[in-house]
Amino acid sequence: AQKVTQAQTEISVVEKEDVTLDCVYETRDTTYYLFWYKQPPSGELVFLIRRNSFDEQNEISGRYSWNFQKSTSSFNFTITASQVVDSAVYFCALSEPVNYGGATNKLIFGTGTLLAVQP
Amino acid sequence: DTGVSQNPRHKITKRGQNVTFRCDPISEHNRLYWYRQTLGQGPEFLTYFQNEAQLEKSRLLSDRFSAERPKGSFSTLEIQRTEQGDSAMYLCASSNQKVRHDEKLFFGSGTQLSVL
Q1: Is A33 touching B (CB cutoff 8 A)?
Q2: Torsion over CA of B102, B108, B27 and A33, rounded to 10 degrees?
Q3: A45 contacts B91? CB cut-off 8 A
Q4: Contact assignment for A45 to B97 by CB distance below 8 Å
Q5: Exposure string (b/e) for B14-44, b if CB count within 10 Å is 16 or more?
Q6: Residues A74-108: pLDDT tens digits?
Q7: Phi–psi pair at B107, nearest 5 degrees
């Protein structure tokens, strides 16, 4: 069965600290996609990144970086020099197997990590 | 392009009543998804449409739930004979699968349902 585990329920940091959010997934499929979404207090989920299971290169986007390690089934997310605006719930998600000639957006979400960045 | 719009934002109803939510996806997006999110949990998939065709329904979607997307544009989600366990945030999302491998989902702000 497919499953996403985000063991950190809540993390509190002080502004400018670096913080890493952990994500561990389970799947028997060889082809899959991994995602991170941000859910601010307004409630709307905001897409951050999508990663193909065949691409293990780490990615950096501004203060955000992602570390995908297939060997440990992990897809961790690091925010460098955190800011108050980063305060939100962050979800890691796994897609169902590729079908219909392209990946589906039927996502399996973890339980989320609430990040609180204090000024 | 104003994003995915959901109405109403909040709905309070009494147990046993029927409720209907509406979702307007981003124009040109051919796929539309419904998810449900309870407090402290991640969203759970309910169903999705490609154009007007409902392609898949989760086992979470009991026979009291029905979703439609009659013209392949907006969608409605109806819950009949609501139960307290239906209280949750109902999220709608859309994507443009016409662009191959474009798997980015755009979510609305959701409809918060409270069943008293």
Answers
A1: yes
A2: 10
A3: yes
A4: no
A5: eeeeebebebbbbeebbbbbbbbbeeeebbb
A6: 999 999 999 999 999 999 999 876 555 444 678 89
A7: -100, 150
Query: What confidence tier does A30 reach under pLDDT thresholds 50, 70, 90?
Result: confident
* SS3 track for A80-117: CCCCHHHCEEEEEEEECCCECCECCCCEEECCCEEEEE
Which positions in chain A touch B110 (Cβ < 8 Å)? 43-44
Residues of B in contact with A107 (CB under 8 A): 43, 45, 105
Number of neighbours of residue A44 by Cβ within 10 angstroms: 18
CA distances from residue A72 to A25, A56, B86 in whole angstroms, order as listed: 9, 12, 36
- In three-state secondary structure terms, B39 is coil
Task: Locate A15 and state its tokens.
Answer: 């502004």
Flag if A103 and B101 touch (Cβ within 8 Å): yes
